[in-house]
């Protein structure tokens, strides 16, 4: 794409145009000036800062009523610039060196993606060559705290400058060498993460990953400390001490570990004071394993589309920093040029290493919901075509040949391809009732950074489809496999999928995926084993069988990464049973207030909550937050009996837990929100709780009681089902942890003949 064309409306499909059809400005971006950013120290992700962008006018200057557009990526969550309140965050000022009057404003989504966040500057008087416009982002002279930089690392964060030199609103993008860029670095260590695989065989090598993260989830090399490793079982090759100074970008991977007997392994990372700074997920080691667990994030984007950093850095992050086993890149098709599609295929071929890491070629078919909505497409091999929903942003480096105008046509074109498709809920959501092909589309995505969307599974059941369940991030921050939402419209931590595979290679992966041999989580590496006994036959997740037997027994075995709150067993649309890991006599001394839901299935789903909760007596001993991912927006206890908070939900839930003294347990709880309010006797609330409908699609306020301490990280059980002729059982398990993380097994489908 030629510099200068990105902000113009594209019409027609020709790859070339006559020179007389082109505005003069398209040919001379080199005469439109230059821009730079002056900074005196490194910029830290999420830190409050001030920076100056200086534009120097080029040969033509800028005519009266011409001006600039300064854009940064839509994915960026930095403080929005504002020009009205000198004391408020994000205050910015603009001045011209020649004294010209300037008018400035800011708006989101006011430029062609991915450069949607845009400052508009209009020159009310003209500028000559050499005159400058200075934009001071985060001007602190009037008391503003500055501008908070975006919360995620970027190696070349660009403020893209467009110039309208002739007051024609034909903006020209400055050449790359004249564009200002900055580097955003991770901050101090806020937490440590320890990662093990979840299922391996006795005597098999495995790796332990140790990671230091800043408060926004960026791996950081700021930790130079030494730590002791404490293992729950003997591990061959595990050192007693490690140094994070030997980590690469904050990540240390210990290879060649081995267990010589079966059991469930956890490893703790202890500081010199003996405090546990990280506790790994559980690794189950079995004498014989027909399958192993491999973790994927198959869905995210890089800076070549609407994400951040390069596609090479994207795959490197998934492999080396998130420590996942399988990764896909799902750029929006209408932003993937033919040349970038070729580059992506080269990258997946390069990064694909059977037995170590799988990189799978693919893209996101991004049709409007009215013609089927978003669907992820992956190929078993490189070199396959990209079938686009349209070519809105890639006309000059693409062809019409493989455009599929709706999802039905997409499935038709893919029927002879060795491809996988998954229905996705992002900005646009997939309407699987509009189009679905069981051979191509084995699963639906119920969780991503956009939120939790169990309704798409209900859509599948209502349509009679047999689908599995996956989770992924749809991350735009360049962090596949470890995608924190930051301070943006994303309300959730990115999801993961656990694949049950005999070995790690593409053929095995594709075959297992087609048979729905996977389960989804909200990002935690929860161990799940869900099976069904049908006579002398054992069924696995994803199985579809017919039988003449009268009943089956569903069994589950779960090991959480945090204490388990509940396990729900479903038969299709029906919740059959809820199992909690505590006995009936447990003291329910904790009160949980939950905000949940979404306005709508599409982009307008985000719900903003403003909540206060108070007790009429007693004392709140302490509070804690569940699914509050923004460290700057945490609940506050403002008195012995009251707490306040603001949060957002996008289909999932966020909660505040209250630990109460005996007098508070005998009092009344009053909860006020910007939607509905409720008052209830605490004694009348049990573990099932009370729910208040707050409108929207499923916006709700829920209050329940829990034990003060939950200690069970594991839970196993079973449920019998009678089989009825002519009825199919669609059986799956959902686990919810104390910390809000969830997991869903793909269903087992059993019909009685």
Structure description:
- The chain is mainly beta.
- The strands form 12 sheets. Strands 25, 26, 27, 34, 35, 38, 40, 41, 53, 54 and 55 form an 11-stranded mixed β-sheet that branches.
- β40 and β41 form a beta hairpin.
Descriptive labels:
7% helix; globular; six-stranded mixed beta sheet; mainly beta; disordered N terminus; 753 residues; 55 strands; 6 helices
What is the number of E strands? Answer: 55
Overall structural class, as computed from helix and strand content, comes to mainly beta
**Largest sheet at a glance?**
11 strands, mixed
Helicity, as a percent range? under 10%
Using only CA atoms, what is the Rg? 27 Å
Question: For the terminal residues, how far apart are their CA atoms?
Answer: 59 Å
In DSSP terms (H or I, runs of 4 or more residues), the helix count works out at 6
Helix/strand layout:
Blueprint: E1 34-38, E2 43-44, E3 48-49, E4 51-56, E5 67-72, E6 92-96, E7 102-107, E8 117-123, E9 132-137, E10 147-148, E11 154-158, E12 160-164, E13 172-173, E14 181-185, E15 191-195, E16 199-201, E17 205-213, E18 226-231, E19 241-243, E20 251-258, E21 263-265, E22 267-270, E23 276-279, E24 283-286, E25 292-297, H1 311-320, E26 326-328, H2 338-351, E27 358-360, E28 362-366, E29 374-379, H3 407-414, E30 419-423, E31 443-448, E32 451-452, H4 455-462, E33 468-471, E34 496-501, H5 506-514, E35 518-521, E36 527-534, E37 537-540, E38 544-547, E39 551-559, E40 564-571, E41 574-579, E42 590-596, E43 607-615, E44 620-626, E45 636-639, E46 642-649, E47 653-660, H6 662-665, E48 668-673, E49 677-681, E50 690-693, E51 700-706, E52 714-722, E53 728-737, E54 742-745, E55 748-752
């Amino acid at each position: 794409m030629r510099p200068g064309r990105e902000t113009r409306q594209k019409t027609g499909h020709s790859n070339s145009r006559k020179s007389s059809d082109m505005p003069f400005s398209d040919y001379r971006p080199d005469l439109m000036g230059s821009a730079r950013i002056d900074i005196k120290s490194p910029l830290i992700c999420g830190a409050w800062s001030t920076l100056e962008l200086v534009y120097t006018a080029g040969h033509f200057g800028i005519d009266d009523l011409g001006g600039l557009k300064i854009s940064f990526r839509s994915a960026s969550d930095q403080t929005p610039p504002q020009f009205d309140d000198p004391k408020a965050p994000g205050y910015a000022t603009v001045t011209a060196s020649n004294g010209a009057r300037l008018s400035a404003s800011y708006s989101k989504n006011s430029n062609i993606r991915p450069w949607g966040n845009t400052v508009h500057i209009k020159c009310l008087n003209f500028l000559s060559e050499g005159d400058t416009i200075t934009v001071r982002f985060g001007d602190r002279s009037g008391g503003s705290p500055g501008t908070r930089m975006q919360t995620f690392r970027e190696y070349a964060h660009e403020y893209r400058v467009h110039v309208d030199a002739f007051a024609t609103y034909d903006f020209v993008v400055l050449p790359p060498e004249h564009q200002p860029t900055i580097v955003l670095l991770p901050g101090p260590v806020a937490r440590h993460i320890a990662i093990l695989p979840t299922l391996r065989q006795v005597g098999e090598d495995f790796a332990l990953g140790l990671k230091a993260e800043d408060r926004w989830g960026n791996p950081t090399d700021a930790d130079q400390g030494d730590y002791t490793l404490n293992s729950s079982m003997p591990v061959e090759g595990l050192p007693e001490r490690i140094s994070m100074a030997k980590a690469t970008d904050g990540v240390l991977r210990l290879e060649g570990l081995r267990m010589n007997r079966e059991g469930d392994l956890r490893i703790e990372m202890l500081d010199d004071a003996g405090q546990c700074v990280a506790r790994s997920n559980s690794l189950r080691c079995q004498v014989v394993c027909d399958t192993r667990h491999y973790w994927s994030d198959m869905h995210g984007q890089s800076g070549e589309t609407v994400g951040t950093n390069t596609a090479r850095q994207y795959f490197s992050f998934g492999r080396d920093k998130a420590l996942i086993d399988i990764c896909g890149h799902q750029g929006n098709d209408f932003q993937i040029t033919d040349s970038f599609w070729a580059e992506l295929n080269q990258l997946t071929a390069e990064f694909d290493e059977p037995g170590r890491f799988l990189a799978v070629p693919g893209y996101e078919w991004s049709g409007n919901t009215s013609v089927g909505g978003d669907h992820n497409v992956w190929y078993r091999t490189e070199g396959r075509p990209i079938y686009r929903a349209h070519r809105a942003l890639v006309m000059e480096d693409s062809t019409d040949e493989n455009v599929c105008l709706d999802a039905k046509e997409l499935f038709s074109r893919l029927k002879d391809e060795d491809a996988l498709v998954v229905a996705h809920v992002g900005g646009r959501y997939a309407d699987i009732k509009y189009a679905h092909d069981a051979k191509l589309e084995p699963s639906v995505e119920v969780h991503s950074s956009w939120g939790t969307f169990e309704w798409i599974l209900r859509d599948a059941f209502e349509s009679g489809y047999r689908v599995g369940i996956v989770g992924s991030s749809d991350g735009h921050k360049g962090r596949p496999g470890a995608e924190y939402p930051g301070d943006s419209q994303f309300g959730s931590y990115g999801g993961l999928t656990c694949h049950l595979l005999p070995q790690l290679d593409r053929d095995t992966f594709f075959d297992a995926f087609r048979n729905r041999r996977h389960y989804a989580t909200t990002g935690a590496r929860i161990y799940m084993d869900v099976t069904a006994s049908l006579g002398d036959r054992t069924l696995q997740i994803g199985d579809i069988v017919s039988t003449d037997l009268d009943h089956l027994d569903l069994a589950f075995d779960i090991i959480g990464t945090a204490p388990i709150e509940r396990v729900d067993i479903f038969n299709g649309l029906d919740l059959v049973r809820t199992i909690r890991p505590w006995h009936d006599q447990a003291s329910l001394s904790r009160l949980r207030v939950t905000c949940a839901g979404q306005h709508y299935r599409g982009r307008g789903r985000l719900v903003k909550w403003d909540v206060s909760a108070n007790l009429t007596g007693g004392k709140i001993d302490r509070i804690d937050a569940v699914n509050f991912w923004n460290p700057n927006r945490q609940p506050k206890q403002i008195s012995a009996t009251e707490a306040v908070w603001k949060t957002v939900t996008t289909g999932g839930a966020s909660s505040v837990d209250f630990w109460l003294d005996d007098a508070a347990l005998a009092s009344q709880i009053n909860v006020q929100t910007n939607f509905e309010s409720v008052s209830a006797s605490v004694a009348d609330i049990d573990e099932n709780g009370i729910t208040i409908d707050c409108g929207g699609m499923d916006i709700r306020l829920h209050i329940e009681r829990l034990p003060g301490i939950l200690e069970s990280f594991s839970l196993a059980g079973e449920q019998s089902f009678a089989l009825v002729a002519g009825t199919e059982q669609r059986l799956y398990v959902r686990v919810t942890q104390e910390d809000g993380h969830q997991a869903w097994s793909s269903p087992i489908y059993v019909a009685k003949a």
